[in-house]
Amino acid sequence: MYNFKTRNNNGNLQNNKNRMSQKMIKIKIYIDAIILKLNPENVSMQNIDYKYDSFAKNFEQIYKNGKQVWELKSNSKSVIEVCQFFKYKKVPINARLNIAERLIKGKKLAKEKKNDFLSEFGISKSPALDYKNDKENFNLANYPLKVAFDYAWENCAKAIHEGEKIEQCEKYLKDIFDLDTATNPAFQKYADLLYFKILLGRLKAEFHKTDEATNKNNIQKLRNVFRDLNYYGDKRLNKKQIQEVVNAWFCNKEKNIAKKKGEEISLTQKEQDNFSLAMQIIGQERGGLKTRIEKYKTLTDMFKVCASKFGKQFADLRDYFNEAYEVDKDLHLVPAFRSVDNYEKIVRRDKKDGDEYVNYPFGIVRFVDPKYTSKRCPKCGNINVSRDQKTNVVKCNVCKYETKVRDSAETNNIHFITDGDQNGAYHISLKALENLNNK
Predict the structure, then answer these.
(1) Partners of 367 in beta bridges
(2) How many angstroms separate the CA atoms of 403 and 395, rounded?
(3) 45-59, 288-302, 380-394: which has the minimum mean pLDDT?
(4) Please, what's the largest Cα pairwise distance for the chain?
(5) What average pLDDT is seen over the chain?
(6) In a 3-state reduction of DSSP, which class is residue 265?
(7) CA quadruple 389, 390, 393, 396: dihedral, nearest 10
(8) Could you tell me if 259 and 265 are in contact, meaning their C-beta atoms sit under 8 angstroms apart?
(9) Which of 234, 258, 314, 408 has the CA that lies 20 to 30 A from 46?
(10) Could you give the CA distance from residue 91 to residue 89 in angstroms, rounded to a whole number?
(11) How many CB atoms sit inside 10 A of residue 55's CB?
């Protein structure tokens, strides 16, 4: 990303103003270049049909560092749309509004559409909830590929041991991902691990709510499933250690079946920690089984490329918009005093060792943001004053303070403010002092 930070070493204020203006031009060029790539004014959720081939045609394989990797084609759809093929992905709200403002200025977007611009992206729908509410019209083709795959995969996995199998789910996995749930070893293993997780959660939640026979039955089911599980250990706990930890937990539960809650035998903290670790290792292994499905792994690799580009482009936009804001703010700073010979010329600050300054023959000029300085009441501090254009008299609409010529013997500073110009200068000076105290 282009580095827009510069330093003024020659004290030439007019040149510095020109350089700041040039910075702003460069920033806007970079912003417009990214917006052109994103093509936000032409994207829509209506353009997405959630087909595997429609997603894959946006990518090509290239050789990079001796490896074959996926890359977005130069003529691919906008990354905003391509990401939605895989999963629901929101456009950051600040980026949405800033892009909308740029398009409005370029007369490519109507003002009334600003708040809703790109808001349709990232609104998620739940297949499980939709199926529950309307089974007849339920269709997995109406969801992003990952969302539909996850739902179909989970439904078929649960149905192996218990639960309702939705035929459409099995057909979807077969047609789109070439996955035969009856013969695929990775899927079968996932189903066993998932059932173990379900039984374990059920036993934990219902142990003190169910009778002894039900608890014994649940533990026996868990033992049977765990005995047949095909899983691996890791460096933290190997397979043998996991078996010992989990069996110790089963034994503890069996001993406590006939006991009341206050009488139960508790595991030591180390035993509890080891059991939690064992469940974590088994869970991680379950989570990695989907990537053994070749077409799903390919799909995921493609999405990572697209998501990376999506993240980078919007991160760059955020940085450029922030930089543009800072440069614009600097261009409109004013000195902490107003004199005829330098007020209009001084338009920015320079930084050295954390201090804001511009060298002048008569000393240092400090700069502050003049926002609201003329509208603030010098007595109560509220930003609610009226200014008479003819007499230049300022009157506060809150505390009713009014500027006028006062006795010079009065010592309070605000008593020396006689008109609106002095009121503005007074608050500019206060801001400069506040900035000094905060350094």
Answers:
(1) 335
(2) 7
(3) 380-394
(4) 99
(5) 80
(6) coil
(7) -40
(8) yes
(9) 314
(10) 7
(11) 24
What distance in Å separates the CA atoms of residue 93 and residue 111, rounded to the nearest whole number?
16
Cβ 242 vs Cβ 233: under 8 Å? yes
Helix (H, G, I), strand (E, B) or coil at 383: strand
> At 45, which amino acid appears?
M
What torsion do the CA atoms of 145, 146, 147, 148 make, to the nearest 10 degrees?
50
Confidence band, pLDDT 50/70/90 cuts, at residue 429: confident
The CA–CA distances, whole Å, from 30 to 92, 100, 114, 128, 386 equal 18, 16, 22, 43, 42
For residues 252 and 308, what is the distance between their CA atoms, to the nearest angstrom? 47
Tokens of 395: 């009157």
Bridge partners of 63, per DSSP, are 68
Q: Quick one: DSSP state of residue 288?
A: T
* Residue whose tokens read 């047609």: 175
CB neighbour class for 114 (10 Å; exposed up to 12, middle 13-18, buried from 19): middle
CA distances for 66 relative to 73, 236, 247, 306, 414, angstroms: 19, 34, 48, 21, 74
Residue where the block lists tokens 């918009």:
321
The structure tokens 């949405």 sit at: 96
CA dist 357 and 286 (Å) reads 61
The per-residue pLDDT for range 317-346, each reduced to its tens digit, is 999 998 888 887 766 655 554 443 443 334
Reduced to 3 states (helix: H, G, I; strand: E, B; else coil), residue 239 is helix
Nearest partner of 294 among 198, 184, 371, judged by Cα: 184
